[in-house]
Each structure stands twice: as structure tokens, then as C-alpha cells.
Design a protein that fits this description.
about 220 residues, alpha+beta, ten-stranded mixed sheet, two-stranded antiparallel ribbon, about 35% strand
Length: about 220
């Protein structure tokens, strides 16, 4: 599960959440998006005009992806791809009722996962001794990040990092620092798990690892 982190914020400031939208693991659709593909796709996405955040892959935009966010003590969280996957910082909208409903469900813990939507421009069959055959996506066009109850990628979770003052839990500075520390511990543990998974498959014979290299262009999909 995901540890809830709520920080105090000024009145009329929007809810801000952060977490991994996609992680370097095989998802429930038996796809794995490479880190290079995620980086190329996210870089293009963030340079564009539309940094869409949707609810359950609908046509309703409830927020936007931020390049970075700084808290009152100067700590900065940045959107980007690291050794674990695509980390995003998201600001929720306050101007439509649907976004307010989503924010309420996030606070209640009903929504705690991310997914991404886009178009796989190239994928190939791969084989791993531990997980069997899967599809590796090495070229992707990213269209959206979506908020949902349970994402296709099992490790794509987020945390609340800022709330409206009138709805936030009151926390002391010590409690805030502890909460941020716990959030960091969760991220580090996830990274260790991903690294262990990679090490377990590192000794595969190269011929068995590349099952098929045939190019395949796909329609819109969720990951």
C-alpha cells in the first residue's frame, strides 16, 4: 500500500500529489516500458502545451503535471525519469466540480494509484526466466497521466504532499519531516525491489532474452 502524507497549505491553494506514474516492471497487461522509452516520451510530454491529468482514462482533465514543486522549507520535487520509473508531481484543478470530487476521494484514500495513457510505437516479445514472455515497449508517445483506484502498473502509487489549509490535517514541523522521511523510505524500498528483479534476470542468455524483434505499431493503450 501507500503511506499517506499530508502537508499544511495556505487557504485556496490546490491539492498537490506526487508519485510514480509508471515503474520499470512488467504490468498487468504483460507489458514493460523501458526507462529510455519513458524518458523520451515524458520529455516530449513535458515540453508540450498539454500536460493532461485525467480520472480513470476519461475525457475529463482534473489536473496538470508540474515540472517541479517546492515546499515552504525549500525542498523540491521534480517530474522526471529516474532508475525506478516516471515520477510525477501533479496539481489538482479547483475550477470544476469533477476535480473537487476526485480530490475528496484522494483525501479519503479511495484513489491512490496512477496509470498512463499513450501509444506504443514499437514493441517486441522478450523472455525472462522468472516471469516468462512479455512485451517490451521501447518507443512510446505519452498522452496523459490518469488517477485511478488501481493502475495497470502495480507499483504506480502516489502521495498527498499538500492540501488546502481548511481541509488538511494539522501537523507539527516534526511530524511533517517524519512523514516526508517515510515517503522517501517507501521510494527507496521500491527501487531496491526493482533492482533485485533486474539482477535476477541479468544472467539470461542473450538469445533467449530476445524472443522477437518484430516492429509493431499499436493503437491508444493504457499502461
Amino acid at each position: 500500500g501507500s503511506e499517506l502524507v499530508i502537508l499544511k497549505g495556505s487557504r485556496n491553494q490546490p491539492l498537490v500529489i506526487a508519485g510514480y506514474a509508471s515503474v520499470d516492471v512488467v504490468d498487468k497487461q504483460n507489458d514493460l516500458i523501458t526507462l529510455d522509452a519513458l524518458k523520451d516520451a515524458s520529455d516530449k510530454f513535458m515540453k508540450g502545451e498539454y500536460k493532461n491529468v485525467m480520472i480513470t482514462h476519461s475525457n475529463v482533465q482534473v489536473g496538470e503535471v508540474l515540472n517541479n514543486w517546492r515546499d515552504s522549507k525549500g525542498n523540491v520535487l521534480k517530474t522526471g525519469v529516474d532508475d525506478t520509473g516516471l515520477f510525477v508531481v501533479i496539481k489538482m484543478r479547483q475550477d470544476i466540480e469533477k476535480a473537487k470530487e476526485v480530490a475528496r476521494d484522494i483525501r479519503k484514500g479511495k484513489l491512490r494509484s496512477f496509470s498512463i495513457g499513450g501509444q506504443a510505437l514499437h514493441k517486441a516479445n522478450k523472455y525472462d526466466a522468472d516471469i516468462g514472455t512479455y512485451k517490451e515497449i521501447d518507443k512510446l508517445e505519452l498522452h496523459e497521466v490518469t488517477i485511478c483506484e488501481e493502475g495497470i502498473n502495480p507499483e504506480a502509487k502516489f502521495e498527498i504532499i499538500k492540501e488546502n489549509k481548511n481541509e488538511a490535517i494539522n501537523m507539527t514541523e516534526t511530524e511533517i519531516e517524519k512523514a516526508l522521511g517515510e515517503f522517501t523510505d517507501v521510494v527507496e524500498e521500491l527501487r531496491k525491489q526493482v533492482n533485485i528483479s533486474k539482477e535476477n534476470g541479468a544472467d539470461l542468455d542473450e538469445e533467449s532474452a530476445e524472443y522477437s524483434g518484430e516492429e509493431e505499431v499499436l493503437d491508444e493503450a493504457d499502461y
